[in-house]
Design brief:
GO terms for molecular function: copper ion binding; oxidoreductase activity. There is one protein chain. The chain contains seven helices and 32 strands. The chain has helices at 2-20, 166-175, 187-197, 199-211, 403-409, 418-422, 606-610; strands spanning 28-38, 43-49, 57-61, 65-72, 81-83, 107-113, 118-123, 135-141, 152-161, 226-229, 239-241, 248-254, 261-264, 270-275, 278-285, 287-290, 295-300, 308-314, 320-326, 379-381, 506-515, 520-523, 534-537, 541-548, 554-558, 563-565, 575-576, 578-581, 586-592, 597-603, 614-620, 631-633. Helix 3 crosses helix 4 (199-211).
Length: 634
């Protein structure tokens, strides 16, 4: 009797042990191939997975163990990065940081636990293979039901397909940074501006931009692309089928190399339920902007028996993608009128609504070792950004109208006070820098043609009622085509806090810098190859603050660790893997350092990353059990 009881207990214990093991997901085999990409108007040779671009959608369930065998059929090294997935660093797929890469003719098997749910994507992290077509989507189903209801779902992957290869684009940008800018100012635009603003203001504006060797149209580095949705051009019309009254979940992924898209579905409101794979409290919008590498999940409910258009216009209005939602195959939605008035950058996007000359070390709440000098490595600081005078709750600059208050923040003085500028570091070389790096710290008053600057003529703008994640008066602040609700980062609130709320132990400030004329992009004025790694300690909570001193938006992606965006919602701050930082703004996020190893940290604009806006992050310490290895084979 005792033997039977003991045997029964052993069987029960074994059953519990087996059930507690992670289930093996369906194994995937991916081949990396040269493929033909046909947009209807052009055919190019690119790179894809399993013979196509985009690659397949990989589906997993939270709690499973993923196994993906990748075979390289190219004549160059390749890799796959699982964008936004939390996994052992050796499985992250970044050659030179997490593994050596996959040589031609070789295979590598990625194995990792699936610890999350939501919408993600994968892409090559080798050379310019991603811009050339090496990308695909990932859907991870939750262990339990989602907190929102839907009847069917579609992945909607946005892409900017260019007729030139990524390597050729990079060569052209290094030779001539405005090579692909098809919206440069002309005699015609001069006449239009003079009729609207007056001749004097228009002449002043042109002189000022010319003296800085910049263009207010420099919003998109790459134009001349065809916008794709799920690999289909607007003429090829990808179509998702629905039945009227169904709730349809659309999983938007921006897999573009360089293009931000403004997305709308005329006639339908969109309820945003996820951002970067993490559930958010539902917010209903008419339009949203999706930065490169971001994902948004929305739910729509078409009521009528007709086709609806998915319209995605580029932020600079130089291109678009289009697709249809329809009740039957073969239907095509009517395309809405394109917005042809492309936005223009303003002095606000140069950081001129910020305190350009202030000595940051003297700001209340800032410490003397704040990085201010061009060429410094990343510096740890410990200020309370939320309590800084002149800063709002998100750590960004508030309205600059109260100059008396600004005097308390630092000696604004004369715009040409070089003694004050010296406090910020040796800016001598910066005075001759003819490009957009370090705009916030440049002495514009001493630049040719800038001595008697008229802010009104320069269209600086001071609107403080716009999106707080854009500089007040920015030319990039979006507006919905129908005049309705446009999504802001400020609208995002986590459905549930991912981590207990606690103060950060330290802060690291990262200045996003660059030289457009040389097409060099950097962090704190230092390119990746010249920079020291950022070192974090396992178990600490660290606050990062981006200060964008360029006139470009940068989608910043930290591998391996979640980025808790500080948007003023406290414990409900949303959790993301990619954070967009607009020109002339300061944005903060915090991260719980809970993944040991080495991680990439970079701007996700392909040619910015390739030209230096990149760092290695080393997480020191942590459990050895978190380490894992992949397997190679021929």
């Amino acid at each position: 009797m005792k033997f039977k009881n003991a045997w029964g207990m052993l069987v029960a214990a074994l059953a519990v042990a087996v059930l507690s093991l992670p289930a093996m997901a369906k194994p995937y085999d991916l081949s990396v191939d040269y493929v033909d990409i046909d947009t209807g108007k052009m055919k190019t040779t690119g790179i894809g997975y399993n013979g196509s671009s985009p690659g397949p959608t990989l589906r997993f369930r939270e709690g499973e163990e993923a196994e993906i065998r990748v075979t390289n059929n190219l004549d160059e090294t390749t890799s796959i990065h699982w964008h936004g997935l939390i996994l052992p660093y050796q499985m992250d797929g970044v050659p030179g940081i997490s593994f050596p890469g996959i040589e031609p003719g070789q295979s590598f098997t990625y194995r990792f636990p699936v610890q999350q749910n939501g919408t993600y994507w994968f892409h090559s992290h080798s050379g310019f293979q991603e811009p050339d077509g090496a990308y695909g989507s990932i859907i991870i189903e939750p262990k339990t039901r989602d907190p929102f209801r839907y009847d069917r779902e579609y992945v909607v992957v946005l892409k900017d397909k260019h007729p030139h290869s990524g390597a050729r684009i990079m060569r052209n940008l290094k030779m001539m940074p405005d090579y692909y800018n098809r919206q440069q100012r002309t005699l015609g635009t001069f006449i239009d501006d003079a009729a609207r603003d007056g001749l004097s203001a228009t002449l002043f504006n042109r002189k000022a931009w010319g003296s800085m060797r910049m263009m207010p149209t420099d919003i998109e580095d790459i134009q001349g692309f065809t916008g794709l949705i799920n690999g289909k051009s607007p003429e090829q019309n990808w179509t998702g089928i629905f039945k009227p009254d169904e709730r349809v979940r659309l999983r938007f992924i921006n897999a573009s190399a360089m293009t931000y898209f403004d997305v709308r579905i005329p006639g339908l409101e969109m309820t945003v339920v996820q951002a970067d794979g993490n559930n958010v409290q539902p917010v209903t919008v008419d339009e949203f902007r999706i930065a490169v590498a971001e994902t948004y999940d929305v739910i729509v409910q078409p009521k009528e028996d007709k086709a609806y258009g998915i319209m995605a216009e580029s932020m600079g209005r130089s291109g678009y993608a289009f697709a249809s939602l329809a009740p039957r195959e073969g239907m095509r939605a009517e395309m809405p009128a394109l917005r042809t008035d492309s936005p223009l950058l303003t002095m606000a996007d140069m950081g001129m609504n910020m305190n350009m000359n202030m000595d940051h070390a003297n700001l209340p709440g800032m410490t003397p070792n704040m990085p201010t000098k061009l060429g410094m490595a990343e510096t740890n600081t410990t200020p309370d950004m939320k309590n800084m005078k002149g800063m709002n709750g998100t750590g960004k600059m508030g309205s600059m109208g109260d100059m008396a208050q600004m005097k308390k923040m630092g000696d604004m003085g004369s715009m040409g006070d070089m003694a004050q500028m010296k406090k910020m570091g040796d800016m001598g070389s910066m005075m001759n820098m003819p490009a957009q790096g370090n705009m916030a710290n440049m002495d514009h008053g001493n630049m040719p043609g800038m001595g008697n600057m008229d802010p009104a003529a320069m269209n600086m703008g001071t609107d403080t009622n716009s999106d707080p994640f854009y500089a007040p008066g920015s030319g990039l602040t979006p507006k919905a085509a129908n005049g309705g609700k446009f999504l802001s980062y400020a609208d995002l609130k986590a459905q549930k806090p991912r981590y207990p709320e606690r103060p950060a132990m330290r802060e690291i400030t990262l200045r996003l810098t660059g030289n457009m004329e040389r097409y060099v992009w950097s962090i704190n004025g230092v390119k990746y190859e010249d920079a020291e790694p950022i070192r974090l300690k396992y178990g600490e909570r660290v606050r990062f603050t981006y200060v964008n001193e360029t006139m470009m938006a940068h989608p910043m992606h930290l591998h391996g660790l979640w980025s808790i965006l500080d948007n003023g919602n406290g414990k409900w701050n949303p959790v993301k893997h990619t954070i967009n930082v607009n020109p002339g703004t300061t944005v903060s996020f915090e991260t719980e350092v809970d993944a040991p190893g080495q991680w990439a940290f970079h701007c996700h604009l392909s040619y910015h990353m390739a030209s230096g806006m990149f760092r290695k992050v080393i997480v020191e310490g942590g459990p050895q059990s978190a380490q894992a290895t992949g397997t190679e084979g021929s």
